Amino acid sequence: MATRQFSVLSTFILTITHLVSAQQDQQQAELPRRRPPSNIRQILIAHATLMGIAFVLLMPLGVFVVRLLSSPYTVRYHASIQLLAYAVAIAGFGLGAYMATEFDAWTASNGHPILGTVIVALLLLQPVLGYVHHRIYVRRKEKTVWGVAHVWYGRVLILLAVINGGLGLQLSDNTVKGEIAYGVVAGVMFLLYLAVLGVAYFRKRRSREGETGEKMVRGEKSRGSDEEVDGLAGVGSRPQRRERKLRRTKFEPEPTGSDAERSRLSVKNG
């Protein structure tokens, strides 16, 4: 089953790449030729490497961490990895924009630089969705529409980035072996992603869990909860004290009869 999914994903990426690259090849033939910079090959390699690290390695790694790790620092690990991925992607985008400008490749029919610009611009919204979800979750301890949007928005962006990477290989006149290698790496990461989702799903069925998969015990997070990471619900923090006070108010019975009278006398005598 896994081999079949891998084959389908690789075929899908390569098919989309070849369909769009036909238009790119025609457009490239019509572009005016200028003498490339002497280090253009190094810039091209750096651009491809940075983008591959950002979208094929770091961003999936951030997802793996938040799905599998139950730690006081889960959210911080996830956010740090993703912000590092954004920084790497922006650096790679800068190199790509430089090359597109050098070769006058900013045209509507040249899919790779245009789609790459859109993806990098849309990335700026992703951490906002995650942050809003996390702030609401800290207060309500329940899933939010912001969280759902954060997850699926990220999945769509990574898929578009992987497809755009294939278009970039076509644009750079890469070999067929290079394209196949790219498809294999993308397929392997896809399989790893499915495996992580499977592990997270079965773990969730075994126990109640919180925002990022940490276990819940009697309605409270166990030690190692990622919500303690945020600085708002740490051990002995004000939110935790407030929650304990609310639980006592809710579950401790009010004194009645002689108990109430003794309490009033004790307060008066004190």
Describe this structure in words.
The chain is 74% helix and 1% strand. It has 270 residues and is mostly helical. A two-stranded antiparallel sheet has the order 1-2. Strand 1 and strand 2 (220-221) form a beta hairpin. The longest helix is centred in the C-terminal third of the chain and has 31 residues, at 176-206. The model is unreliable at 213-238 (pLDDT under 50).
Salient structural properties:
74% helix, 9 helices, 1% strand, 270 residues
Q: Structural class, judged by helices and strands?
A: mainly alpha
Cα-based radius of gyration, to the nearest Å: 26 Å
Low-confidence stretches: 213-238
Share of residues in strands: under 5%
The major pleated sheet works out as: 2 strands, antiparallel
Mean pLDDT: 75
| Strand line-up in the sheet with most strands | 1-2
How do the helices and strands follow one another from N- to C-terminus? HHHHHHHEEHH
Level of helix content? over 70%
Q: What does the overall shape look like?
A: globular
- Count of distinct strands: 2
If helices are DSSP runs of H or I spanning 4 or more residues, what is the number of helices?
Answer: 9
Q: For the record, give the distance between the C-alpha atoms at the N and C termini, rounded to a whole number.
A: 74 Å
